[in-house]
Amino acid sequence: DVTVLRLGHRPGRDERMTTHVGLTARALGADRVVMAGSARDRTDTIVDITERFGGPMAVETTEEPKGFIRNFEGTVVHLTMYGEPIQDVEADVREAHAEGPLLLVVGAEKVPFEVYERADFNVGVTNQPHSEVASLAVFLDRLFEGRELDREWEDPDRVVVPMETGKRVVDPDERAE
Ligand code: SAM
C-alpha cells in the first residue's frame, strides 16, 4: 500500500506539476494521493482520470501535512536531492514496504526540517535538482521493480488498446468481445 503526499505547491507555477504528481502516482502503482496546502484544489483531474481509466486510486487532502507524516503508521520516504542515493537504499526500502504501508513525500517549495527528521529514508534520485514528477516515477519503478507496468485497472470506462500505429480507446466490454 503506497500513499503519495504532495506538500503544497507554488500557486501560479505548479498547478500542472501537482496534477502530474497525482497522475504519475496512479499510473505507476501508488494507491492513494494526498494533497496538502495550496495543492488541495488540484484533485479534479486525478479523480476524473481515475473514473475514466480505472482505479484503485484514492484522492484525498489534508490541512495538517506535518501531523499526517508524524502519525503515519508505516515507513516514511521523503524524496529529496539531498538524500541518500536511491541505488544504495532501494533494497532496504523494499524490505520495509514488504512489512507495511509506505508514505512517499514530495515537496514543491522548501521542505520543513521536521520532514527530513521524521522520514525513515531521505532518498535522492541523483543528487541533482530536478523534478518531483521525475523522482516519483523513478522511485516507484525501483520500488516495484517494473511490476507496476503490468498493473490491472479496476472498473475502467475506457481502455487503450496498444498498437504500433494509431490510437484506439475502447469500452472494456468491447475489448472482451
Ligand atoms: N528547492 C527545494 C528544496 O530545497 O526542498 C526543492 C524543489 S524541487 C523543484 C521539488 C521537489 O522535487 C522536492 O521537494 C523533491 O521532492 C523533488 N526532487 C527534486 N529533485 C530531486 C532529486 N534529485 N531526488 C529526489 N527528489 C527530488
Q: What is the gyration radius calculated from CA atoms?
A: 17 Å
Number of distinct beta strands: 8
CATH class assignment: Alpha Beta
Distance between the termini: 33 Å
Fraction of residues in helix: 25-40%
Order of helices and strands: EHEHEHEHEHEHEEH
Q: Biggest β-sheet: count, sense, barrel?
A: 6 strands, parallel
Number of domains: 1
**CATH homologous superfamily classification:** SPOUT methyltransferase, trefoil knot domain
Describe the structure.
- The protein has 177 residues and is of the alpha/beta class.
- It has 7 helices and 8 strands, in the order E-H-E-H-E-H-E-H-E-H-E-H-E-E-H.
- The chain has helices at residues 15-27, 44-53, 65-70, 86-99, 113-118, 132-144, 172-176, and strands at residues 2-7, 32-36, 58-62, 75-85, 102-106, 121-124, 159-160, 169-170.
- Helix 1 (15-27) packs parallel to helix 2 (44-53), helix 1 runs parallel beside helix 6 (132-144) and helix 4 crosses helix 6.
- The model has no long low-confidence stretch (mean pLDDT 96).
SSE layout:
Elements: E1 2-7, H1 15-27, E2 32-36, H2 44-53, E3 58-62, H3 65-70, E4 75-85, H4 86-99, E5 102-106, H5 113-118, E6 121-124, H6 132-144, E7 159-160, E8 169-170, H7 172-176
Parallel strand pairs: 1-2, 1-5, 2-3, 4-5, 4-6
Antiparallel strand pairs: 7-8
Helix pairs in contact: 1-2, 1-6, 4-6
Bound molecules: S-adenosylmethionine (SAM).
Features:
177 residues; alpha/beta; Alpha/beta knot; 6-stranded parallel β-sheet; two-stranded antiparallel sheet; globular; binds S-adenosylmethionine
